[in-house]
Amino acid sequence: MHLDRDVVLLITHSGDYFTIDRVVEAVSKLGAQPFRLDTDKFPIALQLQANLSNSGSNHTLQYNDRSLNTEQVQAVWMRRIWQPDLGKELAPQFQAVCSNESLAVLDGFWDSLREATWVDDLRRISAAENKLRQLRIASEVGLVIPRTLVTNNPQEAREFFHQVKGKMIVKLLRPLSSGMQASSFFMYTSVVKEEDLLDAETLRYCPVMFQEQIPKQQELRAVYVNGNLFVGALDASEYAASTQDWRRETKKILTWQPEQLPDKLIRCLDAFMAKFGLIFGAFDLIKTPSGEYVFLEINPTGEWGMLERDLDYPIALAIASALLSKSPK
């Protein structure tokens, strides 16, 4: 299939749907050609080729009967980079090295796209994924953050538990990849009970992030796209008794409502995004019963499909516009 130079490369995986489809549609409406790259299909079903010499370099890929030269790519949407699916025929002792080599080739391929507009730059995404850096920057720009302890010292964890009067939650510092297995206690934000800390010696092997448990009136997902905010709110009373993480609840329970944030808070979010140099980000915030807004975290490649689906927000169009803008904010 022939492609011109106005190509938008969409980096995702084969199990992705709805959000990727909406961005494909929006890019097409704006007159560019979307090219979906399912990273888990490399190297089995997706071919990459890099030719480099002193006279220059050339990078091409072929996927689903479509060929692409990186010189054709105007913009790149960084949604997901997935572990390679190497199938079951490859011997187990070769799986790890082949996976690592495949990811290294992809990393070099991304470098060949450095002149394109990225939403967002991989280095900026990586920097913004660090939750300790997030909390520091959030506090610096005027956002309220929860009291937080990251430690591998069991006694420090027990003391913090009493400092916050037994109202404590635990969460991961980094998201698990698709290929890693973990209990729901580690996958999601969970309440810590005193008995959980009686035998906390395993902290010596893995530091953990503990935070004070913030009382909730609403949980907010605020999707930021190039200066635009799309905010959805959940009534925490619908699920807070059963879980501290709305992602564990069923669609029947969750009812997203549109929400408008105060101007002062919006200015803080603008400053936060500027500090990280991000175009896109999905903020998680809490509105307390007293009306205070508390920053929890930002996911620089976070989910937003439920807000476009339930609230008819034009998030996909905003992302496509940012990708095709010659001078993004």
Distance from N terminus to C terminus (CA atoms, Å) equals: 33 Å
Number of distinct helices: 9
- The best one-word shape is globular
Q: Which structural class do the helices and strands define?
A: alpha+beta
| Helix-residue proportion | 25-40%
Radius of gyration: 22 Å
Roughly what is the average pLDDT, rounded to an integer? Answer: 88
User: pLDDT under 50 segments (min length 5)?
Assistant: 176-187
Main sheet summary: 5 strands, antiparallel
H/E topology pattern: EHEEEEEHEHHEHEHEEEEEHEEHH
SS strand fraction: 25-35%
Strand order of the largest sheet: 14-13-12-15-16
What's the count of strands?
A: 16
Task: Characterise the protein shown here.
The protein is of the alpha+beta class. Helix content is 28%, strand content 27%. The protein has nine helices and 16 strands. The strands form four sheets. A five-stranded antiparallel beta sheet has the order 14-13-12-15-16, sandwiched between helices. A four-stranded parallel beta sheet has the order 2-1-6-7, covered by helices on one side. Strands 8-11-9-10 form a four-stranded antiparallel beta sheet. α1 packs across α9. About 4% of the residues have low confidence.
